[in-house]
Amino acid sequence: MNRETVVTEALNLLDDVGLETVSTRRLAKRLGVEQPSLYYHFRTKSDLLAAMAQAAMAPHANAPLPSPEDNWRAWFLENSRSFRRTLLMRRDGARLHAGSTPTGDLGRIRHKMAFLASSGVPELQAQMAMLAAGRYTVGCVLEEQADAEQQTGDTLPDDVPALDHEVAFEAGLALILGGLEQHTTASGPASAPPSPM
Question: Which ranges does the entry annotate as DNA-binding region (predicted)?
């Protein structure tokens, strides 16, 4: 048993029972070990949850980084969509991720910020838009996963349409992008400086 095995099995346990029911006792039983042996790899449950959150984000964390020739608008949308898809891959994925600190992802974040800046997006607005899009995405997935957990078979009144979570997410994301465009000086990759008159 190593650290990677523990995290993998902990994520499988998460998918089976949900975040509320994940415990080191259940995990130890699943691994066929005594509970204290888990503390060799993780001193606290919080340490374990942080490692689970980092591992769960691997599909998004390993997605290709933007290139200078990429359209920043298309990339901004796809970056948020990739984040959403990754959160949805795990039961309670948004709850697991919420509040985690991406300490191992700082290099990638800096690359993304530099890409937006080189595309004509002011640095402060780029930071705020990425933060807003990230928190918006987590919130949307929290609601979507909560709805999935609470399916009771109750039907909505005829005049209340069922919410399409993906359509709603895309609409809100477009509004965030529209707001960011208000602060942008370039339409694509960084524009050449104007020639002197």
Answer: 23-42
Distance CA(192)–CA(197), nearest Å, equals 15
Task: Look at residue 155 and tell me whether its pLDDT is greater than 70.
Answer: no
pTM of this prediction?
Answer: 0.86
Count the neighbouring beta carbons within 10 Å of the beta carbon of residue 148. 11
Task: Please name the residue that has the structure tokens 């964390």.
Answer: 61
In a 3-state reduction of DSSP, which class is residue 40? helix
What lies within 8 Å, CB to CB, of 100 at 6+ separation is: 50, 53, 54
Structure tokens at 30: 């699943």
Contact 76, 113 (CB under 8 A): no
Give pLDDT tens digits for 136-152.
999 999 999 998 877 65
Backbone angles phi, psi at 122, to 5 degrees: -55, 145
Neighbouring C-beta atoms of residue 44, cutoff 10 Å: 10
On whether the CB atoms of residues 169 and 84 are closer than 8 A, the answer is: yes
The pLDDT of residue 120: 93
